[in-house]
Amino acid sequence: MAPSADLYLKNHVLIQFFYLIIRFFLLIMIFFLKGCLSTVLFSSLQMLTKCSWIKFFQSVYYTSEECCQCNYCHNLQLVNIYDFLHELFTLFSLMHLYPGYPAPMFQSRSDKLWTVGRYSWDDDYHDERQSEHSDKKKISHRNSSLTHNHNDNNSNNNVELFSQSWIEMLTLISNAELDVIEVLIELVMEPYFINPNLDNKFLLISAQSSSSLITANTPAVCHTEPCLTSDLIELIAQCLTGFAVEQAHLCVEVVPPVTRIRIDQSLTNQSIDMRQRACDLLLSLWHSIDDRSKVNYIHIFLPNVINMATLPLPRIRENCVDCILNALTIHAPTVENVFVSEIDRVVQWAGTDFAADIRNLLQDEFSKKRKPLPPPSRRSHGTEDFDHKQQRVISDFSKQIDCLLHYGKFINRPSQMNEMLAFCNLRKFYESINRKDMILRYLYRLDRLHAAYSNQTERGYTLELISENYSWDETSVDVDDVSPHYVQYGKSSSRELRERLLLDSFEYLKQGTDWEHAIDISNKLIHLYRDIMPNYERLSEILVSFIFFHI
């Protein structure tokens, strides 16, 4: 029987109003009236109960015969649930970067504004190197391990930054945001994996039922759209991570005492709980996925879990390590591939305390969770291999973190030689575990370092080493760690990128007057323009230079 318009009217008016606010807010939130719109948006969100969300999802997928013919129901049928949720979570993520009200910020050495404790090594690759004095002001750990400058003016600036922030209002908004995310995960994402055999059906938990019965006759997100669902899960995971990591007003442990006594203490305690709650929601989303499907989402969750673990809350770190170990039992090769890359990226701004803590937690928790092997008579070959594989992965993780801790302290220091040696040693470590992607990451960083110091000859050698990792194929390559100058060539083809690298290497070696090595590079270019991709105009240019070297 079709529901009456009276039952839907209130919910649909609210939903329509809310949906229009989202679209309007996305257009102008970073320019005008952010605080006002934030208040209106989250006031509307707080009015939406679980029952209201269920009514909305039902109305979207009811057929015209099943739904009433009011304008609200008719318009809701035109709403795509993926588009709606995508816009909503994108809005939340934008608000983490551009808060609606003044938020506490700190100023980094490069005179850029960063969220509390956020600092990245990658921002040091400029021609201007930092001085010893600026290194003392480095913010070494996001959200916690702040290396405070013992300068009275700096302390006064921090107090002023926090005193001008609307911490209480931002905390209330964050609390409303978490409430909405929790409901959406419960109603939209968690049931998705309960019965993956359903086709074009989605389970919604009925808020009207005291026993929380699950009804299978409620249409919702289609199981035939796994790509869209994967994108949505990734967006939710990034949103929750950004909520906890990017928002400075939740970092109550770094609030100056003068400001802290002026804040409602219940909100102070709530801020800590909200970061923990965001982590719990992220992990609940992970645990709601069935084990067969988790292997497809490891690359989504692991980077966010590692970012979440940078928060200085022991329980969060323990929970994140548990998630990593759980993923390790699902598919160790994928975990190893993602972890090595992500921990290398995160450790370099998260600080040594974070790295040492994660290493110790991984070793301790793995020892606790490791099940003793059965007697040899009942032990299968596969069980023993799986145990050894996990043990090897944890051992490699520990070695990697130890290596980062040892050499990381030499990076971003005034000593050029120490920094170059650190890059070279880290590159050799990744060569020992056969990680081509990490080798390239450090070779590109070494190239940027040589560029900063105008080391032309060394830069030519480095670019040649990088080129050896690419082929003459016409397929595109992964450009995540490629220097910005070479990204366009990598997106085009491996051949174009390798050609550009060799041409630049050739020019830098000529500038550095290393004629002998420049001849070797010219031979490779001659082979390219004569045999692989005939280009006689460029071939003649290379041959002219080749003759010049022999004069």
UniProtKB/TrEMBL annotation:
Assigned keywords, A-Z: Membrane, Transmembrane, Transmembrane helix
Domain of life: Eukaryota
Domain DOCKER: 430-551
GO cellular component: cytoplasm; plasma membrane
A GO biological process held by the record: small GTPase-mediated signal transduction
InterPro entries, A to Z: ARM-type_fold (IPR016024), DOCK (IPR026791), DOCK_C_lobe_A (IPR043161), DOCKER_dom (IPR027357)
Family indicated by similarity: Belongs to the DOCK family.
Molecular function as annotated in GO: guanyl-nucleotide exchange factor activity; small GTPase binding
UniProt keyword Transmembrane, yes or no: yes
Biased amino acid composition, Low complexity: 143-152
Descriptive protein name: DOCKER domain-containing protein
Disordered: region residues: 132-152, 368-387
Membrane-spanning parts: 12-33
